[in-house]
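L-cysteine:1D-myo-inositol 2-amino-2-deoxy-alpha-D-glucopyranoside ligase
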Amino acid sequence: MKSWTAPEIPRLAGRAKRPELFDTVGRAAVPTPKKGDEARLYVCGITPYDATHLGHAATYVAFDLLCRLWRDAGLAVTYVQNTTDVDDPLLERAAATGEDWQELAERQTELFRQDMEALRVIPPDHYIGAVESIPQIVPAVERLLKSGAAYAVRNGDVYYDLRTRTKPPFGTVSGLDREEMLKLFAERGGDPGTPGKRDPLDPLLWRAAREGEPSWNGGELGPGRPGWHIECAIIAAEHAALPLTVQGGGSDLIFPHHEMSAQHAQALTGERFAKAYLHTGMVAYQGEKMSKSRGNLVFVSRLRAQGVDPRVIRLVLLSHHYRCDWEFDEAMLDAAAERLERWTRALAEGASARDLTGKIRRALADDLDAARAMRAVDAWAERAPEGDPDGDEQPAEVAAAIDALLGIRLS
C-alpha cells in the first residue's frame, strides 16, 4: 500500500540527545537506542471509514516528533504503520451508506494520506493494509492452532487461548484486573459472550465466512477474514524485527488491542513484542471524548477546506503533551495562528538566537515535550525586535531547527 510524500527535512549541525520516553508498561522513563543503532517503531493506523479527526492527527503528529528526534540523534529508523482496511465498523458503515466497502476504505485512506502530507508527517517506511497481510496471517493462525495456543468453536471461528504461557505474561501491558478487562473488552470490539469460548476474554484470530461479508482463502482455517489483533502482530513481526523499540498508539488501544497483539506475537516468535509502549491521550470536543459514535469529530480535511493553515493545526496539536487528555476549542486555532504569525515575523526581522536548537532538542528529548520546545521558540520571537546580542544561531539556522524538529516550516 502506498503511503504519502515525505516532507523535506533540513539537516542540523550537531546531534540531539537520545530521548527518554515514558513507558506505559513500566510507568517510568526509558532511554532509546544509541547513535548508530536501529529504532523500530510500530504505530497502529486508522480503520478507514471516518478520517482524519484531530484525535487521529494528534497521535500521528506525536510519533512524527519521535521519528524526527530519533533521526536527528543519528539513529536508523524503521517505521511501520498499518491500516485496518477490513473490519466490522468499516463494513457496517458501508452497509449503512450503501457504498462498496472497498471504495469507502480507499477513499478514506486517500483522505488520510492527504491530511498527513498537509501536516508534514513523515510517512512510515512500511504502510501495510490488513487485507494485503492475509497471506502471512493465515499460516500464523494455523501454527497457533497446531501448537495448542488456539482453538476453533462450532461455527468455525478461531480464538486465541489466553491460557497459553508467554513471557511477559498476559496482563503485563495493561496492568488491569480481570473485571476491568471484561468491561473494556465488551466496549472495544470484543465478544465475551460468544458460545464455545474457553475464556470470555479469548480474542478472535479468524472469523469464518458469513453471508454478505468479504472473505478470503484461509487454507486449513476455511474461508474467512482475520481478527483485529493478529493483523498488527503479524504486520509488525513481518516488517520490523521484534522486539520493537516502541509500540505506539492511542491510550484507548492499551486494552484489549496492544495487550492481545503482544500475546499473539510472543506466542508465535518467543520474543518480547516491544521494549516500550507509548500512548497518546484522548482528544475531547464539546465536553466529550471525540469519537465516531458520539458524532463530535473535528476533521483535519474540513479545517483545511475552511482555509485553516495546516501549520496552525499542527501547532494546536503540539501545544498539548502527547500523553495528556485535552479538549479542543476553536479558539485554539486563533491562538495557534497568532503564534505562527509571531514566529514568521521574527524570522523576517532577521532575529538570531542563542542555543535555540539545543533548547528544542532538550525539550523533545524529555518525553517529547513539544509544548516546552515551543515556549523556547516563543521566547526567541519575543526578543526579535531587540535581537539577542549573544545569539550564536543565524535566522536560517533557527528556521531549520523549527522545521526539522517541530515540523513547522516558517519560510
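thats it. The chain has a mean pLDDT of 96. The first strand starts at residue 20 and ends at 23. bye
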